[in-house]
């Protein structure tokens, strides 16, 4: 291409007359044909020639400034006045129209002046590209003048739509696009100008609405309105705003409608969260969860109220049981059933309505821990739960196997909320022992089933001793079968009546008193026979006899008839003394049986002062004293041919609690030593915290007790204090 010689002014005159003015006439809608290819090429060539004139070889900068002036000469006298003279929606329409025309103008002029971009602007990095310069001129000359007014009109239209009026969404979409396009890398007009003002106005709008609705509407109605508002705002963004606005806009609406009024809304007296729970308004509760779940930390207040509500209901059940427990065991069983029913109800709510959210599971757990660890009628929750399990597993119930399994599942779930699981385990072991030894259990499969559930809940160590007890009973049956075969093959060893022995593993079963009871000849022979038999089975085990757990069936011949008596081993031993003596004193019986006074008093009271007076006592009082004398009551009679004579029960609660407290000291010692052996050196506070964490799965340790055990371990040379820092402890290997 050869440069034609003419001045820049001459070239610009040609550009103006044949290019720029024609383009303006086209933009203004006048009858003007579009540019032909030849015309476009001629205009491009003219720009080239203007930039490459002699004697000055490069007039590009001058031409660049002329390009810039084109926009100013068109916008200031023509475009800006046409926008300013209109108002409201008409102003927005004119603004959009002028912006569309301006983009067309930029496109055509960029083609005409393309040589500047290719040869001059690539070297001048501080100069804006042609397209960017065109946008900048419109921003500076038009947007800065009418932009705020346009934003106000848009916000007014948005609020009209919020009030239910129809608006031109297409127009707002075009204006929104204008705000986006008119910005630059450094200036985000959409976000900094329009979005900021729109969000501020949105806050004010919904703040006013919330203040009005919270007074007028119930909680469900308020939530319906809030849900609908959020839906419409999202729809609004999808139609005429940038997608990035949705999150910010929704957060503003959520804050004003849901968070600011959260306390008032949730605590509305007749329709708040607690009322919805009481009335089981499933749909409303689900809507409340969905609304607040979308808000960071939005569920915390609801979960807190959920916890308080459950705590209140559970505590009321406990108080009701405390006040109305005429029959304690019956009342406590009713309480357990009510608590399990309450647990089922609120677990279902968490699962079905609250998507099993961790906050609500935590609230549920903490709430049940509050009232599940309250004492009732002087009995700890651990003891109460163990008694409930015993009642379910006891013989004589009318429930089917499926019902028992379901009930056991629910009761074991309550164990998760009990702090003193070790105390529960000890009470449960005591009751399990009685069911197994006296054949009071409903079904051995149920025993195994509940142990399996406990094992899953609390770990294998928790149930290991109980499982050992069940195993002992199974092995005892095998031993009994072998004993029968032994007696059948050794007729000389047979004592002449049936007897059975249950061999227990000492480490699994609760501890029992072992007295050196002087057995009558008949019973002593049974003991010797079993010893001889057991020696044939094993040579490395020593038997310790626990007579207090035994039972006997003996025939008593009275004047009227013979009655079979079901008695304990101690009772049987005492009664058999009267086969050889018509009258015995308290001291004689004590000497012959080798029992303590306390045990003998209980024993003789059951035989002479209770419902069945098998022995006559002189004097005939209701208490036993060391000076009393006893005779067999031949005149005793009863309509039954078989009767059970109970022994007054011993309250083992105190003993169980003492044993658990003793075991806790050993457990704490072991945990402290294990931690210190691993850490070697540790601060007191951190040691205590770690102890609490490791022990909390079995019981809630007392901080003072932990510190006492630390001091005890120091005296026993397991630990020592740091000489420079008394709160620091060292492990002594």
TrEMBL record:
Keyword hit for Ubl conjugation: yes
Domain Cullin family profile: 380-608
Keyword Ubl conjugation recorded: yes
Keywords annotated in UniProt: Isopeptide bond, Ubl conjugation
GO molecular function, one term: ubiquitin protein ligase binding
GO cellular component: cullin-RING ubiquitin ligase complex
GO biological process: ubiquitin-dependent protein catabolic process
Coiled coil: none
Gene3D superfamilies: Cullin Repeats (1.20.1310.10), Cullin, Chain C, Domain 2 (3.30.230.130), Winged helix-like DNA-binding domain superfamily/Winged helix DNA-binding domain (1.10.10.10)
Entry similarity comment: Belongs to the cullin family.
Protein name: Cullin family profile domain-containing protein
Organism the protein comes from: Lithocarpus litseifolius
């Amino acid at each position: 291409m050869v440069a034609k010689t003419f001045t820049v002014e001459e070239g610009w005159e040609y550009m103006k007359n044949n290019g720029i003015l024609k383009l303006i006439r086209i933009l203004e809608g006048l009858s003007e044909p579009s540019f032909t290819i030849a015309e476009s090429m001629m205009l491009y060539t003219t720009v080239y020639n203007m930039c490459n004139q002699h004697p000055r070889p490069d007039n590009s900068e001058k031409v660049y400034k002329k390009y810039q002036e084109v926009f100013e000469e068109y916008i200031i006298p023509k475009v800006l006045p046409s926008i300013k003279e209109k108002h409201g929606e008409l102003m927005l329409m004119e603004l959009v129209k002028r912006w569309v025309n301006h983009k067309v103008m930029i496109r055509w002029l960029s083609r005409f002046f393309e040589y500047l971009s290719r040869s001059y602007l690539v070297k001048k990095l501080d100069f804006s590209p042609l397209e960017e310069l065109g946008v900048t001129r419109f921003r500076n000359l038009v947007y800065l003048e009418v932009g705020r007014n346009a934003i106000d009109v848009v916000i007014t239209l948005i609020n009209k739509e919020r009030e239910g009026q129809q608006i031109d969404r297409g127009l707002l979409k075009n204006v929104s696009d204008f705000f986006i396009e008119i910005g630059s890398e450094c200036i985000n007009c959409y976000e900094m100008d329009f979005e900021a003002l729109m969000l501020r106005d949105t806050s004010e709008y919904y703040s006013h609405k919330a203040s009005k609705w919270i007074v007028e509407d119930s909680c469900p109605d308020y939530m319906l309105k809030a849900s609908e508002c959020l839906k419409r705002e999202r729809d609004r963004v999808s139609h005429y705003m940038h997608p990035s606005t949705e999150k910010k806009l929704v957060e503003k609406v959520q804050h004003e409608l849901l968070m600011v009024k959260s306390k008032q809304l949730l605590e509305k007296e007749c329709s708040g969260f607690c009322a919805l729970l009481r009335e089981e308004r499933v749909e409303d509760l689900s809507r409340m969860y969905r609304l607040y779940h979308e808000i960071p930390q939005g569920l915390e207040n609801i979960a807190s109220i959920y916890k308080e509500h459950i705590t209140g209901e559970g505590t009321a059940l406990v108080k009701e049981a405390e006040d109305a427990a005429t029959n304690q065991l019956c009342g406590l069983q009713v309480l357990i059933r009510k608590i399990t029913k309450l647990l089922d109800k609120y677990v279902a709510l968490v699962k079905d309505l609250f998507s099993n959210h961790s906050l609500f599971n935590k609230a549920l757990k903490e709430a049940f821990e509050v009232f599940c660890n309250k004492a009732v009628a002087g009995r700890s929750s651990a003891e109460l739960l163990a008694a409930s399990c015993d009642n379910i597993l006891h013989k004589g119930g009318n429930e089917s196997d499926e019902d028992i399994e379901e009930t056991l599942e629910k009761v074991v779930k309550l164990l998760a909320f009990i702090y003193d699981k070790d105390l529960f385990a000890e009470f449960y072991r005591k009751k399990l022992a009685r069911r197994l030894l006296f054949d009071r259990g409903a079904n051995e499969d149920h025993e195994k089933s509940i142990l399996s559930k406990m094992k899953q809940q609390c770990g294998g160590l928790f149930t290991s001793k109980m499982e050992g007890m069940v195993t002992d009973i199974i092995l005892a049956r095998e031993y009994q079968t072998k004993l029968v075969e032994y007696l059948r093959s050794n007729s000389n060893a047979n004592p002449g009546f049936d007897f059975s022995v249950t061999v227990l593993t000492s480490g699994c079963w609760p501890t029992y008193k072992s007295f050196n009871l002087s057995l009558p000849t008949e019973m002593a022979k049974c003991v010797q026979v079993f010893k001889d038999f057991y020696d044939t089975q094993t040579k490395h085990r020593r038997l310790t006899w626990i007579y207090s757990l035994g039972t006997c069936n003996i025939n008593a011949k009275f004047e009227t008839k013979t009655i079979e008596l079901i008695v304990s081993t101690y009772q049987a031993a005492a009664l058999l003394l009267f086969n050889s003596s018509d009258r015995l004193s308290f001291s004689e019986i004590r000497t012959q049986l080798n029992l303590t006074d306390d045990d003998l008093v209980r024993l003789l009271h059951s035989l002479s002062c209770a419902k069945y007076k098998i022995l006559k006592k002189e004097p005939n009082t209701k208490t036993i004293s060391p000076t009393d004398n006893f005779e067999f009551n031949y005149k005793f009679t009863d309509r039954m041919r078989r009767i059970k004579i109970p022994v007054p029960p011993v309250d083992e609660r105190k003993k169980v609690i003492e044993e658990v407290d003793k075991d806790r000291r050993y457990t704490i010692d072991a945990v402290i030593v294990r931690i210190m052996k691993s850490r070697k050196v540790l601060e007191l506070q951190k040691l205590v915290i770690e102890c609490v964490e490791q022990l909390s799965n079995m019981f809630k340790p007392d901080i003072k007790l932990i510190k006492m055990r630390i001091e005890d371990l120091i005296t026993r040379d397991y630990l020592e204090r740091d000489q420079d820092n008394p709160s620091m402890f060292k492990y002594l290997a």
